[in-house]
């Protein structure tokens, strides 16, 4: 687990340092926009972006909610909810993963397995509110998201 975290941290730092703007006379927003385009970040997490992963089964629920660089985790009310700030390197990598998503296609990605349909697995969904639009995945088995969102979901769960 520590090796994975270190790898994500190093990758995030590499992405941050390798994507710089060359224009000196640009405003901060223009620099960020140019940097996002240069680095391939078509979508970036804004302070109003909300990401929610929900796991549900009989008598159990777990939510992971990200808004801006804040993460909130709640599990069946058994343990008090935890709230914390995502580190800069993890947030950079989260932005990298987020930028690779085709948000409008998320609802069309099929679940790789369907055990949740007969109580064989917990139901998990990914929901994203970004730039005023709402995107929700189809329900899938906990721990087995569609391949197109798998890296993104697994990284969030590792935070």
How is this structure best described in words?
The chain is of the alpha+beta class and about 160 residues long. The chain has helices spanning about 1-20, 30-40, 90-100, 150-159, and strands at about 50-55, 60-65, 70-75, 80-85, 125-130, 135, 140. Strands 1, 2, 3, 4, 5, 6 and 7 form a seven-stranded antiparallel β-sheet that branches. A hairpin with a 2-residue loop joins β2 (about 60-65) and β3. α1 crosses α3. The longest helix has 17 residues, at about 1-20. Residues about 5-40 have low confidence and may be disordered. Keywords: Signal.
- Structural classification: alpha+beta
Our count of domains comes out at 1
CATH topology heading: Mago nashi protein
- Strand count: 7
Number of helices: 4
Output the CATH class name: Alpha Beta
Radius of gyration: 17 Å
Mean pLDDT: 77
Largest sheet: 7 strands, antiparallel
Provide the succession of SSEs. HHEEEEHEEEH
| Low-pLDDT regions | 4-38
Work out the strand percent: 25-35%
Helix content: 25-40%
* CATH architecture heading: 2-Layer Sandwich
Principal-axes geometry comes out as globular
Termini Cα gap: 11 Å
Organism: Flavobacterium jumunjinense
Keywords: Signal
Protein name: Lipoprotein
Signal peptide: 1-21
